[in-house]
Amino acid sequence: MADRSKRITELPILTTPQLSDVTVVVHNGVTYESSLGSLVPLFTGTTESGSSGTSGTSGTSGTSGTSGTSGTSGTSGTGGSSGTSGNVNGSLNFIIDGGGSPIPTGISMDIEWRFGANITGWSILADQSGSTIIDVWETSFGGFPPSVANSVTGSEKPTLSNALSNQNLSLTTWISSLVAGDIWRINVDSATTVTRVTVSFHYTRTS
């Protein structure tokens, strides 16, 4: 059996350096620690921090929430009223032609009015100086035909007296109001010399 005490005595004995065995040396700005005959640097130079690493990419944004429902529309405002229609002035013209002879007396023609109107005057023209008197008879469409009893001219019949032209633009004795559908009958009461006559009735529309 081996001698254990001998083996122990043969082991190298490690010694801890004593305080007197440690020396601090500064050389060329570097601090060293001397222990057991060797120099170990404690720190060198100034400490510099390294540059920061690049930031990581941002994460993807979350999905947007659903939109709320739209509110109901307000009611529309009321429309403005229509403006009044302007009056329309015009003339109803007709020709009585005797074909080279004095125009014949009696009924000449019938005319239907397709709108309401007020008669405001008349004008008469002839192909040559002469005389004639024109009368106007009026009735409703259902009352056709009119007669002399339905005359609307009062004391102001379209008249020529040895003249080429005449007019009356300010009627006072006429029944001047007409409604749509009224019928006029033109009657020649008398005629001398004139072989062609143009008569114009001036009006203002009411419908």
Topology:
Blueprint: H1 4-10, E1 22-27, E2 30-35, E3 38-43, E4 89-97, E5 106-112, E6 117-139, E7 159-168, E8 177-178, E9 183-192, E10 196-205
Antiparallel strand pairs: 1-2, 2-3, 4-10, 5-9, 6-7, 6-8, 6-9, 6-10
Q: Find the CATH topology of the domain at 89-205.
A: Jelly Rolls
Overall mean pLDDT score? 81
Percent of sequence in beta strands: 35-45%
> How many alpha or pi helices?
1
- The percentage helix is under 10%
Tell me the series of helices and strands, N- to C-terminal.
HEEEEEEEEEE
CATH structural class of the domain at 89-205: Mainly Beta
Shape summary: rod-shaped
Main sheet? 7 strands, antiparallel
What this model shows, in words?
The chain is mainly beta. It has a domain at 89-205: Jelly Rolls (Sandwich). The protein is built from one helix and ten strands; from the N terminus they run H-E-E-E-E-E-E-E-E-E-E. Strand 1 (22-27) and strand 2 form a beta hairpin. The model is unreliable at 5-9, 13-22, 35-40 and 42-47 (pLDDT under 50).
